[in-house]
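Extended Data, panel c. Modelled sequence:
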Amino acid sequence: MESTQNKQTWLITGANGNLGKRLISEILSDADSAVVAVVRSARAQHEIESLDLNAEQVARLEVKVLNYDDVAALTEVAQGCDKAVHLVGILKETKMASYFDAHEASTSALLQALDHSTVKHLTYLSIVGSTPDSSNACLASKGRAEQLCHRHDIAACVLRVPMVLGEGDYASFALRKRAQAGRSITFRADSIEQPIYAGDVVQAVIAAGTKEINGDLNLAGPEALTRRALTERAAAIVGGGGKVVSLPLAIGLGMAGLFETFMSNPPVTKAMLEVLDHDDEVDPQAACQALGLDHLTSLDDMLKAVLS
């Protein structure tokens, strides 16, 4: 897809997730913007091509199916693009999908491709708490991928966010299920959550690319509260019981360890539980100021939007 002086073309990898599809729709709402969406499968391609877009918007969208570690293919699709957004990542590592491949290998391949392209800026979406020396395998892998972003000549913004809540996503579904139950069981109910609305994350990603911000930003929702309190707030909206029974995290980690030992694709892993248990207490003001965000969606408005 060719770039013109007035038109901005965005390359989005991992574009078939909830955030990716929302980002595509938002970018294409600007008549001067186009999108090249990169996915790994024909099914993912169909998901994007099934978005509710008008004919004019569809004409500004290309969907490419390729492997995220294919430097040559990534280099080819990046030609003519101006901005890149890397959304590839996993919370749960399995024997078929490693943290290294999802985070470090995919980021390295994309950066090599961008070194030989027209792209001038990269936004990498990461997780609050990511650091290369983290004891958690997921957060450490994400941290190493973040380091890669700053070792290339291209300007890069690492945008770290905690739990993201959006209409129709898994996190909102799980929260609604807990809130509707007369009594729900969770591990360490006093862990701190600071959810951010998916629409705010999309606006932040676009702002980071448009402003070509170079550096790291930690962005979270406007309110931090315990998981128990979050469930109770959600229950007040959906009319559920909201009763929370808290179990020690060690029990969950022990169960996850057994799953990992005896299952090739466990429903939960120890590293995944540790990420979800991370205490998220972030002052979002610095990131909002850098991104030019006037306000963030309040927790109550967020919950009403995603739980209704």
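Residues 8-165+195-222+281-296 form a domain with the Rossmann fold fold (CATH 3.40.50.720). This feature is highlighted in the accompanying rendering.
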